[in-house]
Amino acid sequence: MKTVKIDSKTINSWETFHDVFFQKFKFPSYYGWNMDAWIDCMDELNDELILIDLGDCRDLKERNPEIVEAINECSAFVNYRKVEAGESAVITISMFV
């Protein structure tokens, strides 16, 4: 399993959320900086399980609870699409909230 550590303290808006994921996951230059694009890019990851380690997200959850919720929901959707296609889930999340 590959681990990608993301310092949740660097995320303070939707723009910084997308910037951080764009850089950490090396999304393509045409990335759309929205959650539909995020889902598509995460879905295109190889079949290796990836642990996204967000560490202590209490501050992020207090400042931007919708971002924490989107990470959970969209990761679950990526995994759902993979499983429905007969593949294995590719995302697992670690965070302290």
Q: What is the gist of this entry?
A:
The chain is of the alpha/beta class and 97 residues long. The chain has one domain: Barstar-like (Barnase, Chain D), CATH 3.30.370.10. The protein contains 4 helices and 3 strands.
Can you walk me through this structure?
By secondary structure, this protein is an alpha/beta fold. It has one domain (2-96): Barnase, Chain D (2-Layer Sandwich). It contains 4 helices and 3 strands; from the N terminus they run βααβααβ. It has helices at residues 14-24, 35-43, 58-63, 65-84; strands at residues 2-5, 50-56, 91-96. The chain has a 3-stranded parallel β-sheet with strand order 1-2-3. Helix 2 (35-43) packs across helix 4 (65-84). The protein starts with a strand and ends with a strand. The model has no long low-confidence stretch (mean pLDDT 96).
List the helices and strands and how they pair.
Layout: E1 2-5, H1 14-24, H2 35-43, E2 50-56, H3 58-63, H4 65-84, E3 91-96
Parallel strand pairs: 1-2, 2-3
Helix pairs in contact: 2-4
- Between the first and last Cα atoms, what is the distance in angstroms? 23 Å
Q: Helix coverage percent of residues?
A: 40-55%
Number of helices: 4
Q: What can be said about the biggest beta sheet?
A: 3 strands, parallel
Radius of gyration, whole Å: 13 Å
Which band does the percent of strand residues land in? 15-25%
Arrangement of strands in the largest sheet? 1-2-3
Structural class: alpha/beta
Extract low-pLDDT stretches: none
Averaged pLDDT: 96
Q: How many strand segments?
A: 3
CATH class: Alpha Beta
> Tell me, what's the shape?
globular
Order of helices and strands: EHHEHHE
CATH architecture: 2-Layer Sandwich
- The number of domains is 1
- CATH topology label: Barnase, Chain D
Give the CATH H-level superfamily.
Barstar-like
